[in-house]
Amino acid sequence: MALLLCGLAGPLAAQEARPLAEDPVLEAKVMRIAEELRCLVCQNETIAASHADLAVDLRKQIRQKLQQGQSQEQILDFMVQRYGDFVLYRPPVKSSTWLLWGGPFLLLGVALAGLVLNIRRRRTPASAPLQGDEAERLRRLLGEEKS
Amino acid sequence: MKRYLLPLIVFVVLLGFLAVGLNLKPREVPSPLIDKPAPAFKLARLDLPDKQLSLQDLQGKVWLLNVWASWCVACRVEHPLLVELAGSGAVPIYGLNYKDKRDDALAWLAKHGNPYVASLSDTEGLVGIDYGVYGVPETFVIDKAGIIRLKHIGPVTPEVLRDTILPLVKKLNA
Questions:
Q1: Nearest residue on chain A to B123, judged by CA atoms?
Q2: Which of B2, B24, B29 should be substituted to probe chain A, the one whose Cβ sees the most A Cβ atoms within 10 Å?
Q3: Which of A67, A124, B88, B130 has its CB surrounded by the most CB atoms within 10 Å?
Q4: Mutation choice for B interface testing from A38, A39, A40 by most B CBs within 10 A
Q5: Is the peptide bond before B137 cis (omega within 30 degrees of 0)?
Q6: Mind listing the pLDDT tens digit for each residue in B11-35?
Q7: How many domains does chain B divide into?
């Protein structure tokens, strides 16, 4: 259903003129904030990139709030209050997200530890001392090679 | 033997993660509004555009807020169930007619039945934004004190109604 809407929204949105603000500075600000926000209809797109109806509406909200003099934090708070942390493209660091932020470093640590262990094991020669006539044979082989 | 065991374990663990991942529903984003006061609104009624309805008017009872639109295909799936629910009188249903044209909405209700005590015209979708609506239909259960107790995203199914919504309404009414 959502995919259908996403697919439909493209050509539909193309027909109607985009409500660009007259002020390009303001519009740049709108887009900068919109790039921090996830479109919940087409979840892999930002609100800046999405053509979904909701994204258009939310860009309008951002524009209005900027015109009212609100800061970026206030606008992001407004969105989080309604749609949750999920709306942020950069999730905040908190107890429920520590694995998300720390996970890659944890994996890196485990991988490095494994690597170090592996290298150490390889460096210590596992060979036993030569036995019987092995020393004599080795010398002969090496000697033949040299000549 | 041990050489082969480790990759096998890693593979099985990976398989487990993938299996869980397959069964997650990323479409259903948990709402931050659960157990919070329902956002205030004051909107014109769909049937009587001169009259307005606000959140305060609905205090003191348990009710459902169903977000719908005539352009919404999935709304048609859940609609017979809502009509049936309204007929049973178990809980009053109020509609939020989201980003719709009044004529289309009225024609749609005339054709498919009207389960709503009243529908509110959210033509601009601003109340929808306050309620964090992103996939119509959505259904909220709101308690006597005006606290949102449940948000269901997508069409209400008979299972959801029987196992989740109705027991919750009963509990809140007790």
A1: A57
A2: B29
A3: B130
A4: A40
A5: yes
A6: 999 999 999 989 888 777 788 899 9
A7: 1
Contacts of A84 in chain B (CB under 8 A): 29-32, 132
Closest residue in B to A40 (Cα–Cα): B134
- Classify residue B56: in a domain, yes or no: yes
- Maximum CA pair distance of chain A? 94
In a domain, residue B1? The reply is no
- Domain, as residue range, for B158: 32-173
A-chain residues within 8 Å CB-CB of B137?
Answer: none
The pLDDT, as a whole number, for residue B3 is: 78
B73-110 pLDDT tens trace: 999 999 999 999 999 999 999 999 999 999 999 999 99
CATH number of the domain that B74 lies in? Answer: 3.40.30.10
- Choose the mutation target among A82, A87, A94 for the interface with B, i.e. most B CBs under 10 Å: A82
Residue B95 belongs to a domain: yes
Cα–Cα distance measured from residue B148 to residue B134, given in angstroms and rounded to the nearest whole number: 17
Half-sphere exposure of A19 toward its Cβ, with a 13 Å CA cutoff? 12
The structure tokens listed for A31 are 């887009």
> Looking at beta carbons, which residues of chain A come within 8 Å of B7?
none
Please check whether residue B132 lies inside any domain of the structure.
Answer: yes
The class of domain A2-87 in CATH terms is: mainly alpha
Helix (H, G, I), strand (E, B) or coil at A107: helix
Contact: A41, B135; criterion CB under 8 Å: yes
What is the value of ipTM here, to two decimals?
0.79
The tens digit of pLDDT for each residue in A17-70 reads 555 557 888 889 899 999 999 988 888 889 998 888 899 999 999 999 999 999
